Amino acid sequence: MRLDIYRRAESDGKFSYLAVPEDRDIPNEATNTDWQVEARALEVEDQADQIPDYDIEHLSEQIAEKGYAVTALH
Length: 74
Fold this sequence. Notes:
With 74 residues, the protein is mainly β. The protein has one helix and six strands, in the order βββββαβ. The longest helix has 8 residues, at 59-66.
């Protein structure tokens, strides 16, 4: 699958990331924050469970449930 990756600044110089299938817009519940484009059309295996570079876990599960995936906040 191909994903567009967005990022937003958090505290302590860290970032949160949002992965959205490339044929979809950022979901309405996420448009009220300052997401910036990080990567376009990132190729990821269809059954991938995570994107370590962006600290995104349970990728397929999140996309199936919400239509997007977001960084796990620790």
